[in-house]
Amino acid sequence: MLIVSDFKLNSAITETAFDKWHQCPGGKYGTGCNAECSCRNNDVCDRVTGKCPHGCPPGFTSGTCKEACPKGTYGDNCSKTCHCIDDSCNPIYGQCAHGCVAGYQGINCQAFCDKGTYGLHCNKNFHYWLFLCFQVIVEDAPVFVKVVVVIFVGVVANWVAVVVFDFRLAVFLSRFCDKGTYGLHCNKTCNCIDDDNCNPIHGACPRGCATGYTGSDCQEQCSPGKYGSGCNEECNCRDKDVCDRVTGICPHGCPPGFTSGTCKEVCPKGTFGDKCHKQCHCNDDSCNPAYGHCAHGCVAGYRGKSCQECEYETTDYTIGIMK
């Protein structure tokens, strides 16, 4: 009696099972699992792309959090601005190895000079030349001289200070509003980078607007589809969603082929598609990051425009057993 049994071995299933048996351990990712995650709070990153689920630790950026903050920025999400006299700014804490630029003080150069002082090392004083002006007023001087000096101190100096002297001299000479406010009744809010004090009269910011704002007085919010410093960056979100006007983060993620918080980075080499979760099978580096199309063909064993189909999908075996 001859009994014949037929079965099919699906190579795709076998490959999937093999992948599961050989997934990268927690904290590793990439080809050969040779790369280590670098995530906030030691989170485990995606085993294929290295992307961190809750972002990067302070001082780092990019999808895999391997890049230090861009020059001139530091801290969480690289959102703070360095005020170092050179390029020695620590990307994590903002500490300056060789001191601060004029107008700032402190270990990480984030504090303004004390009231009444300005300049490099905050060692210059506003009061001396003002004292000379007022001395002319109270001393025995011609009336017209006194009038000119009063006008200069009370009105003209405010505008001269903006152009000639340190910007904050304008604040010193003007009616004081609380920090972060300006206007006739101090009822308008400054929107300056790093919470700088704006001009108390017209709201202009000495070093530019805070991210998400634009305009001469930094009161205009970025229009939909724009974000960042001066609203100069464009959103790149899934389904053309409007991103956050400050951070550029997309509410529903990136379009296929892109990654990172702002969706500006293309998928890492060897990956493509939605969330960069698919693996390329091109015989070179021509893999399209959005669709996986291979310009110069597939590696052995794969076929199709995006090289995702197994060349030998199934194999039939017939086993005969004689009894």
Question: What's a quick, concise take on this entry?
Answer:
The protein has 323 residues and is an alpha+beta fold. It contains 4 helices and 24 strands.
From the structure above, extract its key features:
323 residues, alpha+beta, two-stranded antiparallel sheet, 4 helices, 24 strands, 15% helix, 19% strand, disordered C terminus, transmembrane
Structure description:
- This protein is an alpha+beta fold.
- It has a domain of 56 residues.
- Helices cover 15% and strands 19% of the residues.
- The strands form 12 sheets. A two-stranded antiparallel ribbon has the order 1-24. A two-stranded antiparallel sheet has the order 2-3.
- The radius of gyration is 31 Å and the shape is elongated.
Alpha carbon gap, first and last residue: 5 Å
Q: Quote the beta fraction.
A: 15-25%
Strand order of the largest sheet: 1-24
**How many strands?**
24
Choose one word for the global shape. elongated
Quaternary class: single chain
Q: Uncertain spans, ≥5 residues at pLDDT below 50?
A: 1-21, 159-175, 314-323
Return the average pLDDT rounded to an integer. 77
Helices and strands: which structural class?
Answer: alpha+beta
**Proportion of residues in helical segments:** 10-25%
> How much is the radius of gyration in Å?
31 Å
Tally the helices: 4
Please write the string of helix (H) and strand (E) elements.
EHEEEEEEEEEEHHHEEEEEEEEEEEEE
For the largest beta-sheet, the strand count, sense and barrel status come to: 2 strands, antiparallel
InterPro entries: MEGF10/SREC1/2-like (IPR042635)
Keywords: EGF-like domain, Membrane, Transmembrane, Transmembrane helix
GO molecular function: scavenger receptor activity
Protein name: Multiple epidermal growth factor-like domains protein 10
